[in-house]
# Entry
Amino acid sequence: MKTKRYFSKIRTLGKALLLSSLLSLSMSGGLLAKTNLLVYTAVEADELRLFKKSFEKKHSDISIKWVRDSTGIITAKLLAEKRKPRADMVWGLAATSLLMLAQEDYFQGYAPKGVQKLVPNFYDRKHATPQWVGQRVWIGSICVNTILAKQYQLPTPMRWSDLLNPIYKGHVVMPNPNSSGTGFLDVSAWIQMWGEENAWNYMEGLHKNIAHYTHSGSKPCKLAGAGEFAIGISFAKRGANMISKGAPIKVIAPEEGVGWDLEAFAIVKNTKKLAAAKKFADWSVSREANVLYNREYAKVAYPGVAKPVANFPNRIVARMIDNDFEFAGNHRKQILKKWASKFSSKKTK
Amino acid sequence: MLSDSTHSNPLFAIWKKGTRFLQKDFQTNLGGFFTLSLAVAVLCLVILLPLSFLFIKSFQDQDGLFIGWFNFAEYFSLLDEQGNFIGLLEGLRSFPDSAVAVSLGNSLQISLISAVLVTSLALLYAYGLSRTNIPFKGAWKVVAQIPILAPSLLPAISLFYLFGNQGILKGLLMGESIYGPIGIVLGEVIWTFPHALMILLTGLSLSDARLYEAAESMKVSKMKIFFTVTLPGMKYPLISTFFVVFTLVITDFGIPKVIGGDYSVLATDIYKQVVGQQNFQVGSVIGLILLFPALLSFYVDRRIQRKQVALVTAKSVVYKSKKNPKLDAIFLVINGLIASAILSILFMAAFASLIEFWPYNLSLTLSNYDFDQMDGGSWEAFRNSLEMAGWTALFGTPLIFSFAYLSQKMVGFRRTKNLIHLLSMIPLAVPGMVLGLAYVFFFNHPDNPLNFLYDGMTILVLCTIVHFYTVSHLTAVTALKQIDSEFEAVSASLKVTQLVTFFRVTVPICLPVILDISVYLFMNAMTTVSAVIFLYSSDTTLASIAVLNMDDAGDTAPAAAMAMMILMTSACVRLLHLVITRKMIARTQSWRK
# Structure
């Protein structure tokens, strides 16, 4: 009798145990349902919402958390966190920055599904599995306010060298390359096109005409659009946007050639969210993602996708320089240091 | 023999002497001892330790290894391209051309000019308010308080629209650019004006009418009275104002960031080093430099407070201004001009936030308030600010008030109480950015058992409470001093614990002051940029930070819109505060009559 009761007790206990473990399993399953992917990016906020929505629609188990700032700051942040990285992924950051970080052994190599379909020099082929993969090109340009140009009788600058003309003194704004990726791609392009010495001479001449250096790469074009300054050294997409907004500006791709950089992504080494990061990487090289990239950028990594974007300068793609990412990435730190010591304090003007 | 030798040990003697006061109080009031110790420990944790971490950090490299003066050498350009020390002599020779010399010179220049300008303007304004019979005194006072309701970024943004290259008043600058010292000084003058006015108004109200009567009976001219009676009597408030403004300006970075162009100052240098280069070590070096003016100002202010006491005696007669239509007319014009300058800053920001596309499409729109479409801003940032300010008021007020109570009303423990008071005074001398940076070092240290506090909202609230601690503490202390300590003595003789007295007597009496403190904390939490700039994360962006970031991205109109949101919120809270205080005083403070 007693033993029977004892067994029934054990059985109920067992049932309760089973039930509770099932319950906790389903609960933890519920908790695990969404993986939060922490992604550092320099892509602008209005576009980020779109990318997040499109990706999460396909992968409802992953939720992207963006940390957004300008190129220089995201790069500095990643470097500062080197010993204990917080990000799971870096996405939409300048390839030159990623290249430099890859040398610090920051990333986990991964070949996203379909990466071989991309334009060959748009992703890392130095390593067996790519450390970084490019998404789209952002191209430097000059924004000129036509009303102000007329008012001050400024000729439209068609070449970089035109900007040395003293007539432009106090009318030019340019991003500080230490904080802005757009600022850096210009400096890098000048050095690659003309060699160290000529480029630094050019920058010293340009410095005399600069009203001031801005923190972000968008601001010069926005200032030009608002008529605050006649000429803003910025990037093509921002200029095209400003024209669509009704700003009286012209976007110029200088004849000598324009600098450009790739927005690219990479997976951070030792991330605990590797599976989710790989899914996001796979999506990022897909045709679907590239169609989205093309909405505001003229050149994307997936061949045959790009359609012309409204208000981009005509021959801008043809004028893109033959960009050496290895050079730009390897010399980034040194170039920026030299730039800061030459131009970042008012006294030298 | 043995005990004798122990007693003659000098160390033991010191120990005994040092703990004697403790022993006595310790035996009588164990609970009080622990409460006070807890208060001291908390204040050390949130004030002293973080600051000492900042100090240590300036002598360390990125990995925490001691590297001596290297960070200082780096900031003072004492290193050559290979990172070798170039020698002090060489350093001295090249110092005037170095970036640090430029920033330091610029910082001193704008702070001096702003301090002189604000002190004189505020003196005129205060004189008009307290020594003349100009009409609408209430309105003048309200207008002068407006700049305090918004972050310092708001006047800077307005200046962009007023005096920028497309500005409506650009002609007034006669070809000079607003981007640089002119813009910074104008912005700082507007922003610090309410602070200066408050000190000077108090100063002017503390004068003895008998002096003026004597002067008038001797037929001394008005002008001469001003220079021989009014000004000397105002010596200390004037010095105090000068230093307060000087410190506010030299440690403010919002205005130089927005309107300063390439004009570098120390406060923007620290931002560039920490946020732009993530070079926290050099950032802490600049932080230490920024501590100096603040400490000096703090010291001068303390000295002056001590001397100020004897100015008004029991025999003093309150000054009543006599009719003088000519003087009234002059000051009506002066106050009118200053007030309209402040109002035009306010209206320009409000107007700019409602314009479709400055200056080419001036149609009105609310689209600039659609923060979710902007780079660096979102409505979430505004909600975060409300939440942060709410928590700051909710936790800060009881904490500060009860600590102030401990420092004033506990029986015995004189030295421990003084220590609490002393610790409470420190935050006044620490610029917000420096405190924020110290918090990064201390609370984000991986080995700190308290690093769980370094989590989104918590650290923002903590840092904000501490940043605005001193003024709240002093407000509480002033109120507590007005309450007779007999209450505690009577309660003790009635065998009522001090805790009960605290809740039944002290808190109800001080309710208006407690409300003052919470409103002060709330408003400052809404507007602060400097205390939180290094501490916010992507989930806890604040409205004031969003203003800065949107302006950085070139979205000036939305930045103005967000600044207006902050201003309107602060104004509403202030209004609500007035109404509640009036009702509360009517209901609970009738015994005062």
Notes: Residues 2-32 of chain A form the longest helix (31 residues). Residues 35 and 62 of chain A are 5 Å apart (CA to CA).
